[in-house]
Design the sequence.
């Protein structure tokens, strides 16, 4: 008489792993403010990374470099053909030096070979959440922080 081996089939194991993965993804979305909140934060991180790249490029080449942002077009550009789009559902506010504006309505932050910058702030917001990407004018340091949409 043959005995059937006890255990789980591959299909049962895969089904359980899939359910656990789905539950973990949903829990992470709820804990971090939802998927839209994750999109807001990841866009702010992308902008901060490209501002840091622009600063590093100015230092390494010994030439001023410029990062531009067009809030109306939801687009940005950085040196070496880097560019990107900001999701249209995010609100964008730019505060910076008018002297380096490429055209009216667009903003720019210029970085110098010593690491300094013209400074500025990019605020991304969605509903009640907001993130600020700040560039210090003296040091050119780029920082990312959570903000309230009504704060200035």
Sequence:
């Amino acid at each position: 008489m043959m005995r059937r081996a006890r255990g789980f089939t591959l299909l049962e194991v895969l089904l359980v792993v899939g359910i656990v993965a789905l539950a973990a993804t949903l829990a992470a979305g709820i804990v971090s403010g939802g998927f839209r909140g994750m999109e807001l934060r990841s866009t702010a991180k992308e902008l901060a990374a490209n501002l840091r790249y622009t600063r590093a490029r100015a230092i390494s080449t010994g030439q001023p470099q410029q990062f531009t942002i067009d809030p109306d077009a939801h687009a940005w550009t950085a040196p070496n053909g880097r560019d990107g789009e900001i999701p249209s559902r995010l609100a964008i506010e730019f505060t910076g030096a008018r002297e380096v504006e490429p055209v009216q309505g667009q903003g720019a932050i210029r970085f110098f070979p010593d690491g300094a910058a013209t400074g500025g702030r990019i605020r991304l917001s969605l509903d009640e959440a907001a993130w600020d990407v700040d560039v210090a004018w003296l040091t050119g340091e780029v920082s990312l922080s959570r903000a309230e949409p009504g704060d200035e």
